[in-house]
Amino acid sequence: MVEFAIETVDLVKRYPASVKRMVAGRGGHTVSLRGILELLIRRGAFITALNGVSLQVKKGEIFGLLGPNGAGKTTFIHVLCTLILHDEGEAYVNGFDVQREPRQVLKNLQAVISGNPGFEWRLTARQGLEFYASLYGLSRREANKKIDDLLRFTGLKEREDDMYQKFSGGMRRKLVICRALLQDVPILLLDEPTIGLDPSSSAEIRALLHDRLSREDGKTILITTHNMWEAQEICDRIAILYRGKIIACDTPDNIRNLVHPETIYSINLQISKFSKTHEKMLEELRGMTGVRNLIPLVSTEGTLEKLTLHLDKNYAVSEVLKALLAHGMGIRSIETREPALEEAFIALTREELRK
Amino acid sequence: MRFPASLRTERTRFMVALRQITAFTKRDMYGWSTYKTAAITQLISVLVGVLAWGINATYRNRPVPEYSTDYISFLVVGLVIGNIVMPIAQGVERRLNPWTLETILMTGVSVPVFVVGNISWNYLFSIIIFVPQLLIGIYWFDAKLSVNLYSTLFAFAISAIILLGLAMVSTGMRFVTKSTDPITWTINTLSQLAAGMTFPVQFLDQIFPGASSLSWFLPQTWVYHLCREAMLMGLPLTSPQMQYDLLKGLAFAVVLFPIGYYIFRWGLRRSKRDGTLGWF
């Protein structure tokens, strides 16, 4: 029994680079001596897109692959769906080797690649799906049933006889997902599934992926995205890919906590004139073990209105509240804010850049 | 009658492949039929092309002893066959576009299905317009055909294998070069001059001595030659000359087809290795 839907071990992919690019200096215009030397020593010019990527995606989970532009996300997806051959390492899809058993791989996995919809502009949605159903080897009866189901499932049934070119961005994205689902494979790869879509279409796609395909149908889904909020919302686990390397891989919460092991509280107080007593209270709060940062908000009229505290994850906020009440402070409301995944992403990638 | 399991599997595979090829054909036909103005002008330009060349040929009419016929009959057959040959030699590369190629390859279709599927609409369309073109040649320009049906079918079948090999060479190279590939360009350019579409290849020797020998290395020469023998000379399958030439054509096809398959696979693999499959 294969434990992982997707598994890669030390995956390396290098693209041949033009000599002109390799010998160019940092600005890309002048010839650099270092570039020429590297070219001579290495006897070839390469750009490393994937640099030893080892990743395991469990069956049934939604896995997010995050990374800045050029990090290697699309290359990784292309390797898994047999469209790019890797140079070193191993990659398996449901236990099948992507280079040695591509046919088996494609029976277990389908991908939606951004910018590559696969539909002819002047064919109707139904004609396009019928074409792919035939290529997948479905009988006419199977194909008709499947296409009807998928078009209903995605809400496109009424537009099935419209040409693909008449579809909106959201409808096109749904149609492409229909194409990927024709073969009923257990693993779906989606390269930036909501890029360029309006908020309601994005929400529909997210619900489709999370609620229907993952939770109801039990499919394994790997998505690449730049949208941190989206990754945090629907992914069970994420990995951050930077310059061809995995720099973090965990649940979204754990990744956020890697960089920010704190919770941020905003405590709105009963407004009172700022006094020496308040100063003493703030000093006491700052001395508490779990308090990382404390910022009082004092208005221009000199009244204390709000406290913003960064507390250790495991520290009980009740200790702070007790102290406030002991100093006779009235509390109007408390808001909590978790550090966003985006902050963690930026911090992690900056840290890598400094290395 | 119940077939053994292995035969049933083969039959199912064959039926699936047939359905896949039909799907490619339907896709191209639907796409083509939506460009109504382009479709009509394409039809007209093909027919006008035959008329223009026919007029030219009538003007320069002279006998062609190599095929025991006159020049107009020789030219009409050359032109109608040429209208089948030329679109097929470029048929697949026209379909190699970045927004569908990767998705199609992800379905796991085999190389032969991909190539045959992508050229079959062009081939069918050429066959459809083949008959009216011939009729114009016969009734308007008095082309004299002596067709042997069985030899013609054999000639067409061998030609199809040769053209498929050529299409695979062209597609494989196009995967790598993206724009015009030097091999197909050379073959097609030389063919315009030396494949014998508008004059017998032997005529080349009068200008460049020995040049006609080169012609027999061009795939298109065999297509024109076999079809002309079957359609102009009316040679039956029992004729030793027809048998010998069909055999030579077949040998050419048998050599070219695997080379084409190999070049296609090489081009696809090279393109996957370079990560340029979706680039065009």
List keywords for this structure.
heterodimer, A: 355 residues, alpha/beta, 6-stranded mixed sheet, 4-stranded antiparallel sheet, 14 strands, B: mainly alpha, two-stranded antiparallel sheet, 1% strand
Polypeptide structure, described:
The complex is a heterodimer of chains A (355) and B (280). With 355 residues, chain A is α/β, with parallel strands linked by helices. Helix content of chain A is 38%, strand content 29%. Chain A has a 6-stranded mixed beta sheet with strand order 6-7-8-3-9-10, with helices on both faces. Chain A has a 4-stranded antiparallel beta sheet with strand order 2-1-4-5, covered by helices on one side. The longest helix of chain A has 18 residues, at 199-216. The radius of gyration of chain A is 26 Å and the shape is globular. Chain B has one domain. Chain B is 76% helix and 1% strand. Chain B has helices at residues 5-34, 36-59, 71-95, 101-105, 111-141, 149-177, 182-194, 204-207, 211-215, 219-231, 240-274, and strands at residues 63-64, 69-70. The longest helix of chain B is centred in the C-terminal third of the chain and has 35 residues, at 240-274. The model of chain B has no long low-confidence stretch (mean pLDDT 82). Classes of the chains: A alpha/beta (355), B mainly alpha (280). Chain A binds chain B through residues 13, 15-16, 49, 75, 78, 81-85, 102-103, 106-107, 110-111, 113, 115-120, 122-123, 127, 130-132, 134-137, 140, 163, 179, 183, and chain B through 16, 19-20, 22-24, 26-27, 30-31, 34-35, 98-100, 102-109, 269, 272-275, 277-278.
